[in-house]
Design a protein that fits this description.
Length: about 425
């Protein structure tokens, strides 16, 4: 066998073995269902489609069109909206489509600051800067880990942005959109909600309902609390056809050519499964996050927003500055097979050496863990970061915990069951 092929196969096999013995807790990841994974291996992954179903620039899309129409219908049903575009190939690409659709270079956009939990696509060195958007950040309430409502309303009235953008990568609590409606009207702006981290919670009725609370458009990735393939989605409930057309053109030909048809099909399976299992899954994610926050705090960790229940989402922000800092602690966790990431906290200035670690419960929940296991997870984390045990010793106990949690939950467990259930969504 070619040495390069053998090397790549070996590394992938080692990765699979490692993660089967680990606690995957990065808030932006998840594991797809077996049926969705089948779609990623299909011939759809070798094919090309540009444009919308029935309006393609390539032949050979007869069945691709049928699948895409069904995936769009599933998304519109799950999110109760008039318009869904399932062609963005990632959450950031969906964001780029909005930049092209709604903003011209030099236009003002308001958003959360990067140090307050925003995604890099809204930063000057990210997609916003590439579009030459004049980005103004909201005032932030560090105690509540959310935007300051009164200050944000004043800012919107003062700067009158073209687009008011919301959404975070450290997304602990719902954005107070309803409280800002009057300010949106006075500013005359479009309201854009980046729900990448909370798409599954929104669909499961556990976080907030942005389209009913004032958002004109939602973008998101589809592989976080929505446990699908790495792909993107764009949603709107607008009855304004011109507005919807601008969004569609922002996607294609704006930022997408072919849209990774195998991932689009896998997304369809995920949406159908979430219609069936999403409410229970979303509820358990939040229960686990709250339980983990309490268990970590009781063991000496500084978990942000403790007075406010730590979180209403899948994510927690933990200040580990006194324990060595986010970079050192997340590396020590990794050596113990606890997979997290270092993260900026509101007072940080360096993304390389931040104070924080971000953790998420969505994948542990997907593997069947509940509140009782969150206490065990917190104890394993404390042994590494607070008690300073050798990570390799803790890794053995992590592997022991994982032995009973190797099956993907909240999805169809067999092809026969799936085919029966999928007829419900036809």
């Amino acid at each position: 066998m070619n040495d390069d092929i053998a090397f790549i196969e070996e590394q992938v096999d080692r990765h699979h073995d490692w993660f089967s013995k680990s606690l995957p807790m990065i808030a932006s990841e998840n594991v797809i269902s077996p049926l969705a994974r089948e779609m990623l291996l299909s011939d759809f992954g070798d094919r090309y489609a540009e444009g919308l179903p029935g309006e393609r620039y390539y032949q050979g899309n007869v069945f691709v069109d049928e699948v895409e129409r069904r995936v769009v219908a599933l998304a519109e049903k799950l999110y109760r909206c008039r318009h869904a575009d399932v062609r963005p190939i990632s959450g950031t690409v969906a964001n780029l489509a909005v930049y092209y659709a709604l903003l011209e270079p030099g236009d003002i956009m308001t958003s959360v600051a990067l140090s307050h939990g925003a995604h890099i696509s809204s930063a000057k060195f990210g997609a916003a800067g590439m579009r030459a958007v004049n980005n103004v950040n909201y005032p932030f309430d560090i105690d509540r880990m959310n935007i300051d409502v009164d200050g944000t309303a004043k800012l919107l009235r003062d700067v009158r942005p073209k687009v008011a953008a919301f959404g975070q990568s450290v997304f602990l609590f719902p954005t107070p959109l309803k409280d800002l409606r009057d300010a949106f009207q006075e500013a005359g702006c479009s309201v854009w909600y980046d729900g990448a981290h909370v798409m599954g919670l929104i669909a499961g009725g556990q976080f907030q309902d942005p389209l009913r609370e004032g958002a004109d458009v939602i973008t998101g990735s589809t592989h976080k609390t929505l446990p699908g393939p790495q792909h993107g989605i764009l949603l709107s409930d607008s009855a304004d056809e011109k507005f919807v057309k601008r969004l569609q053109k922002g996607v294609f030909p704006g930022v997408v050519s072919n849209h990774h048809l195998h991932a689009m099909a896998a997304l369809g399976i995920t949406l159908a499964e979430h219609l069936e299992f999403g409410r229970d899954y979303a509820a358990q994610i939040v229960k686990n996050a709250k339980a983990l926050g309490g268990a970590l705090a009781s063991r000496g960790f500084t978990v942000l927003a403790e007075k406010h229940g730590f979180t209403e989402s899948h994510a927690l922000a933990v200040d580990v500055a006194s324990l060595g800092g986010g970079a050192a602690v997340s590396l020590a966790f990794e050596k113990a097979n606890i997979i997290t990431n270092k993260n900026l906290l509101p007072w940080d200035t360096s993304s390389v050496k931040p104070s924080g670690v971000r953790v998420g419960t969505q994948e542990l929940t997907r593997l069947g863990m509940r509140e009782v296991q969150m206490a065990e997870v917190a104890e394993l984390m404390a042994r590494v970061a607070i008690k300073k045990e050798a990570p390799e010793r803790v890794a053995a106990d992590v592997a022991e915990l994982r032995k009973d949690f190797s099956t993907v939950h909240f999805c169809f467990q067999s092809g026969v069951e799936a085919h029966k259930r999928l007829r419900l969504f036809g």
